[in-house]
Amino acid sequence: MNNEPFQQPGDEDPLRAEARSLAASIEAIRRACGKRNPRDFAVGTPQWEATCIEFARDLRWALGMGDDDSTDVPAIERQVRRLPR
């Protein structure tokens, strides 16, 4: 067992920089395709939630992961579809 206290990655952490670059790339690709990004909507709105799901799906695609049953994205998506648009 690791007894070292958990440390938040700092701004200089290479993994954090890579994650931010990936997110920025996905945002740029979505914008070029005419899609909106989560930051375009107020947090907690139905549009924000639906866009977050789409963004997560695009993130999984960028990481080479497919949509499979190991995540609850389909369940969340079903809930979002019920929300008024």
Kindly describe this structure.
53% of the residues lie in helices and 0% in strands. By secondary structure, the protein is an all-alpha fold. The protein has a domain at 36-85. It is globular, with a radius of gyration of 16 Å. The longest helix is centred in the first third of the chain and has 19 residues, at 14-32. The chain has helices at 14-32, 46-62, 73-81.
Radius of gyration: 16 Å
Assess the beta-strand content as a share of residues.
under 5%
Strands, count: 0
Shape: globular
- Spatial separation of the terminal alpha carbons: 48 Å
Low-pLDDT residue spans: 78-85
Q: What does the largest sheet look like?
A: none
Helix content: 40-55%
Number of helices: 3
Structural class: mainly alpha
- Write down the overall mean pLDDT: 79
Helix and strand sequence:
HHH
In short:
The protein has 85 residues and is mainly α. Helices cover 53% and strands 0% of the residues. The protein contains three helices and no strands.
Layout of helices and strands:
Elements lengths: L13 H19 L13 H17 L10 H9 L4
Helix pairs in contact: 1-2, 2-3
Task: Supply the key terms.
single chain; 85 residues; mainly alpha; 53% helix; 0% strand
